[in-house]
Amino acid sequence: MRTSLFSRVVLGLVTLGTLLFLYTPLWVVARLSFTKAKSVSWPARGWTLEWWREAWRTDGPRDALVNSLQVALAATAIALVLGTLAAFAMQRFTFFGRSSISFLWVLPIALPGIVTGIALQNTFSRTIDLWLFEFRVGFGFHSLVIAHATFCVVVAYNNVIARLRRSSPNLLEASADLGAHGTQTFRYVTFPLVRSALVAGGILAFALSFDEIVVTTFTSGSGFLTLPQWIYANFARPKSPAVVNVVATVVMVVSIPVAWLAQRLSDGGGEA
Amino acid sequence: MALLASLSIVAAACGDDEKDTSSSAAAQTTVAAAVEETTAETEETTADTVAPTDTTAGETDYMWTPNAGVLAGAEGQVNIVAWPGYIEDGSTAPESDWVTPFESITSCEVNVKLGATSDEMVQLMQSGEYDGVSASGDATNRLMAGGEIVALDLADFTSYADVFEGLKNKVWNSLDGEPMGIPHGRGANVLVYNTEAFPDGLDSWSAMWDGGTAADGVVSVYDSPIYIADAAVWLMATQPDLGITNPYSLDQTQFDAAIALLEGQKALAGQYWSDYTVQAGSLVDGTVLAGTTWQVVANFAASEGAKIETTKPKEGATGWSDTWMLSSQASNPNCMKLWMDWISSPLANAQATEYFGEAPSNSKSCALTADPDHCTKFHAENESYWEDVWYWTTATEECIDGRTDATCVPYTEWVNAWSSLRA
Amino acid sequence: MGECVELAPGLNPPNVAGEAFGPPQPVRVLNRLFRRRRRLALASVLSPPVFWMLFVYLGSLLLLVASAFFALDPDSQKPTTTFTTDNITDALTDSSAIRLFAQTVLIATIVTVTCVLIALPTAFFIAKIAPRWVRRGLMVSILLPLWAGYMVKTYAWRAMVSPAGGNQFAAAGRGGGGFLESVLGWTPGFSKTSVVIALVYLWLPFMVLPIYAGLERLPSSLLDAAGDLGAKPIRTFSSVIVPLLLPSIAAGSIFTFSLSLGDYILLRLVVDGKERVMFGELINSTLGAPNQPLAAAYTVWPLVMIILYLFAMKRAGAFDNL
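^ Those are the sequences you sent over. The predicted structure of the assembly is below.
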């Protein structure tokens, strides 16, 4: 398509504007993490590392960070397994009700977090009576993992099914022709094919879980704070606003290489 | 032996109180003064007897000896729902820390869940995930009705005896004569105003209801259905023909009048706050020039440079009398009991209530506050101050003021009305 | 898995050279099992995720809606076992709730449309105009803010739009307002406008990503062909590109619409609690009243809305483009 120079420039400016729009608030937060003033209004005054030292010293954000990492890792693992299974089932088989089931995967992420959160909280707080035994899920690390895994499944599912759609079924037939069994085919042909989709999906699912706040609020136990929860609880408490800025800046900086990797993997698969 | 000695002295002091509880306010003040004198003596005796054994607290003697049986059963951690500012571990202000000593004495790690309103606290306690709560009077009744909390065995608590008699066995903290919790401090919801906007000061709530001042459009209102009672307090002073005698005891006509008043207030309101830090920030930034607040919020804002003053207006105010309560589903009941006992002990109670800006519940705390006038400022022993302070209570269909010829509006209706108002 | 071509029954390699050759016995058993019984294979692959979703998730949703049919005990404010339709009736007929929901849908729609309007040209530029080597960098830049986290960005917007207090009323050095106020001298303040801007800000990357993916899949030859047939770029854009992108746009809108519909945390930071702006706040405050059954009744509104929306988006082909 031939586009005029004018439209190129305009579109370029729009893109630039978008990037500016996206990054200014983040930069404000980063700049404020160095401010000498205790408050977090603009303009930031002076430069100091005091808040960084404070953040390092305080247990709160560190513990919250560890909690977030643990939950995200566990939830991602479960989501990957479930999502991959689902993707394979949807792609490789035809069965009654297939199109309705595709609904199921999207629902947890499409429904507002507060609805998902309240629903899960309601379930977890009840004692479920199966005639052999009764149990209560309760709240804590496990309830968070269950909740997060539920809405992360779709992310893994999407990535894997997209890859499966792009890959030729001939490869699997060829493998069978060459005498490989089901599991051998899986191990030597199918798995390498979807591996990068798994990693990309895993990274995205991890990000989703790491950042989630609404469902987390409803399904966490007492004393167990994830990083977003910590930020929410502390964003305006004395001293903490500046520490929150530090925490936020660290998260942003650390995520640069990860985001790059995720994008590269999704792209790389596309070129295949 | 020493323990018995100190306990008997304390019991003697309390015995004096009991005889005089039924007398007038003046007499109570004399009694309070007498208590203070005996407290001074008791203090020295307990200090002598307790200090040598209480080495784990470090340099400060907290004058607290936990019940040995309860201490032996300490679980290692406790999860408490509390008002912001009640449980400070030094992270807000390094000198305000009454959690670390507790943790070192009892090895109970304290996890706090802040509640912004009583409603939130009731909901949190219903989940059964917490060991206890610092409940105001409008939460306690609901918690008691729902079985969320249990009655206390006073033998587990060594600090209860020192609590002001005037706070014990009240409607909001006892059931059938049994204590359902240990009183914490009490305070009034005060009026805060910006001194630049009101250089002559304020002594009335009218800036928040009538308007016509510099604060129009920028007043800060507490975002909870219980605030309807504040409207009722204003009506008590300005529309006496409505016949309101208790702001929690409103029949339909009186209730409708309060709601109408609140609708009118919307034009004056700039903020409905539940997160105290948001209100404090606005006070500092000058985007809120008057409002209802707690002393702790005003103190915090002032420490950040806000130009504000607080006052209890002449029309009276709503207030609260808080009680520490133990959950019926507590997984760490012993640690919770230890906390309740601790926070009611003389020095800890003094620190906590001085930080928050409220009157302490332990009669010995008045001698221990950093500001010697704290108890005077907060009227800990001045009952007349509390005569026009209406402690948060749950409104019920049965009128609290005792009327039998009318049905009052229950709290669930307050919630609905508030929800519609705010929509 | 799939159509395995068998050489001949019984002539499969493993047994020829003995046990050491080929996969271990249990695996062989499994292989045989699954090869013959496709249904079993399907069932075992499909059942864990379906089981999870059905019981954990759908079950919870149904339980939630069911809980709305119970009355609340006025003294303890806990749900009882008394059946009642009052909650549902209240939730569906209360005029202020309806108004609030309508306002929320409107805001979510505005946010979605704004996101599309920003994402389309941006994604087009990146996918079709920007040189290849810069493409990945640009996409990473667009997606990076996603990683910063919801709380961080919401809080950042508070710092951006805070209005200035009257300067003589503010503490020393304070009251200057947020970034916009100091830099532009104007700010939308704590208002619905700020809510919309902040929501657009939060969800924009979610819209850019599927549109970009969709554009990438669009062969340039198609666009050249349109040009060859005499279409001006604008015409190509509206008649060729946008219709082809509809599924991607639909996919992106699922995120922007539903995430906006249910939000309530952002509001606490960006609207300062003056008025209730979004339906999520109503659900949350009802839950905190505490009145769980009524809150559950209120959730029926967004539940039905999103399900309908998903059906519509499915027809638009969004599900193949997530």
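Chain B has two domains: 2-185+322-381, 190-293+393-422. The CA atoms of residues 284 and 305 of chain B lie 6 Å apart.

Shout if you want it in another format.
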